[in-house]
Specification:
There is one protein chain. The protein has one domain. The chain has three helices and no strands.
Length: about 80
């Protein structure tokens, strides 16, 4: 009887952990996309127009720059070579 309670507790803990992992994997890309749209909106509102350079700058700052920061892949993502 005591062993069954421990197994059910472990299953519940693993289930909660799996749900949290799925929630994080959905929320993080959505947050990055929100930051990208905010960056492009600020660039467009600053000059009254949105150029391709503004779009590329925001893309690098939000997506590529964040990936470089978090995964420490400075050689593969470096713009200077």
């Amino acid at each position: 009887m005591h062993l069954e309670i421990q197994r059910s507790t472990i299953v519940i803990i693993l289930g909660v952990f799996a749900i949290l992992m799925v929630a994080v994997s959905i929320a993080v890309p959505a947050l990055a996309l929100k930051n990208y749209f905010n960056c492009t909106t600020k660039a467009a509102n600053k000059n009254g127009k949105l150029s391709a350079e503004d779009i590329n700058t925001c893309y690098y700052k939000v997506f590529v720059g964040a990936r470089k920061y978090y995964s420490n892949e400075s050689k593969t993502l470096s713009l200077s070579g």
